[in-house]
Amino acid sequence: MQQFEQLEKQLELFGQKVNEMGESLKSLSMVQNGTEELIKKTRALRETSQKHHQELLEALNNHQQTIERQISEIRIAMGCGIAGERRNPLNDEDIQRIEILTGKTAGEVIYQASVDGFKNNNFNENVGGKESIVLVIFDSEGNVFGSYNAKQIPEIKKDETETIPAKGLYDDNDHFLFVLRKKGVSDVKKFTRKTNGYSLWVFGSIDNLLSVNGAFVLVNECNRSFDSSISGNFRREYDEDMFIDKKKFMVRDIVAISFN
User: Fold this and answer.
1) pLDDT above 70 as % of the chain
2) What CA–CA distance (Å, rounded) separates 112 from 15?
3) Percent of the chain clearing pLDDT 90 (strictly above)
4) Where's the TLDc domain (predicted)?
5) d(CA 98, CA 163)
6) Which of 19-33, 47-61, 235-249 has the lowest mean pLDDT?
7) Which of 157, 95, 101, 148 is nearest to 124 (CA)?
8) Which residues contact 240 (CB under 8 A, 6 or more apart)?
9) Higher model confidence: residue 39 or residue 111?
10) Distance from CA of residue 194 to its chain's centroid?
11) With contact defined as beta carbons under 8 Å apart, do 169 and 153 qualify?
């Protein structure tokens, strides 16, 4: 009888163990199912992330291409070729007007800031030593103006840039200033200084790009700031009112054209 009771207890304990094992297996199965579900969700999230990443890359690539295309279109509108070659941004009518003012025929564009650079060394390398040059400035508000010098433009060589602050062009009887457009509207006018003297300055160690004496000063990288300015002595030098409305302006492009 005693042995029978012991056997019953052992069977009861065994049953409890089996139940515990069943619960453990059930819990393990739930964990396994949860893990599998988590793996599925992780895989789906990774696939979604990869898809979104690819879509983002494609969107960025398309945006970059759009920007590059717009830049190309702007450069063409400003007179630059697709590959960045120099190109005269003036229309035929404006060229003819300058030819009438100078009495000469327009030749090639020897410097274009949007292609060659907006610093004095870029200007000096391309224009220094040349004669019969028309400079045309296009500002950010649609004003188009410039100057003409018959005499040779002063030359500052590369090895002189740090030691020579500036060089001036003196006593050019044929020098004059002109305006082609005011805020995009044709308004042609020629300005002649009352007295001769220095008409044009080029720069080396001074942080300016060029200056037409008594008229305007262009700073280096004048396409990035409104630091270029009309001379405060304009009326005294030309006996006329200032040729554009603002004393400070930002430059969009500059071209130097040889005339023959």
Assistant:
1) 76
2) 96
3) 52
4) 108-251
5) 36
6) 19-33
7) 157
8) 191, 234
9) 111
10) 38
11) yes
Strand partners, 176: 148
Nearest partner of 78 among 258, 257, 253, 259, judged by Cα: 253
Q: What is the mean pLDDT of the chain?
A: 83
CA-based nearest residue to 180, from 94, 111, 247, 108:
94
CB atoms within 10 A of CB 217: 18
The alpha carbon torsion through 33, 39, 45, 47 (nearest 10 deg) reads: -130
Residues 6 or more apart whose Cβ sits within 8 Å of residue 136: 89, 90, 98, 144, 145, 146, 180, 254, 255, 256, 257
In 3D, which of 65, 90, 67 has the Cα closest to residue 78? 90
Give the three-class secondary structure for 18: helix
CA atoms of 51 and 42, how far apart (whole Å): 14
**Model pLDDT for residues 56-109, shown as the tens digit of each residue:** 767 765 665 556 445 544 554 454 444 568 888 999 999 999 999 999 999 999
H/E stretch holding 55: helix 2-77
Strand order in the sheet with 106-112: 106-112, 251-259, 133-139, 144-149, 176-182, 185-191
Written as one string, the DSSP assignment of 181-207 is EETTEEEEEEE--SS-SEEEEEESSSS
Distance CA 180, CA 118 (A): 22
